[in-house]
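TA notes, week 10

Several of you asked for a full example with nothing omitted. So below is the full record: C-alpha cells for the whole chain, then the designed sequence directly under it. When grading your own attempts, check the secondary structure regions first.
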C-alpha cells in the first residue's frame, strides 16, 4: 500500500543504504512505525471480499423454486438413515452414492451423513 508520501513501506526500507545518516534512517523508521500503527487500528474500506468456495451454485436440481431447501425427517427408534450432502442424489434427501462420482471428477472428499437412532430397551 502506498502511503500519503508517495512511497510504499517496502520502498522506504529499500531506500536505506549503508551510507545513510542516522537522521534519514530515524525518519524512515518513524514513518514506518506510524504507518503500521495507523494501519493496525484503522478499518479499511478496501478489504477484499471473501472468495466463494464455489463459482456456481451447488444445488442445481433440488427444489430450485424455494428460497431455502429444508427437509424434516422423523426416524423411529432403531432406524438408520443415510443423507445426501453433495446435492447430486436422485433420491434427495437420502444418499444414493452420487457423491462418489462427484469426488472422482473434482477430487473432493464428500460423503453422506449417517444417522442411527438407538433402539428402545424394554424392561427386563
Amino acid at each position: 500500500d502506498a502511503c500519503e508520501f508517495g512511497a510504499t513501506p517496502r520502498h522506504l526500507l529499500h531506500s536505506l543504504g549503508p551510507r545513510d545518516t542516522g537522521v534519514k534512517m530515524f525518519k524512515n523508521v518513524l514513518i514506518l512505525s506510524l504507518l503500521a500503527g495507523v494501519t493496525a487500528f484503522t478499518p479499511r474500506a478496501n478489504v477484499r471480499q471473501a472468495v466463494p468456495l464455489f463459482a456456481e451454485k451447488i444445488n442445481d436440481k433440488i427444489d430450485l423454486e424455494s428460497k431455502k431447501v429444508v427437509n424434516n425427517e422423523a426416524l423411529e427408534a432403531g432406524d438408520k438413515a443415510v443423507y445426501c450432502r453433495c446435492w447430486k442424489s436422485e433420491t434427495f434427501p437420502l444418499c444414493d452414492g452420487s457423491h462418489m462420482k462427484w469426488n472422482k471428477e473434482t477430487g473432493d472428499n464428500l460423503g453422506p451423513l449417517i444417522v442411527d437412532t438407538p433402539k428402545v430397551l424394554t424392561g427386563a
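DSSP finds three helices and two strands in the chain. Use that as a sanity check on your answer.
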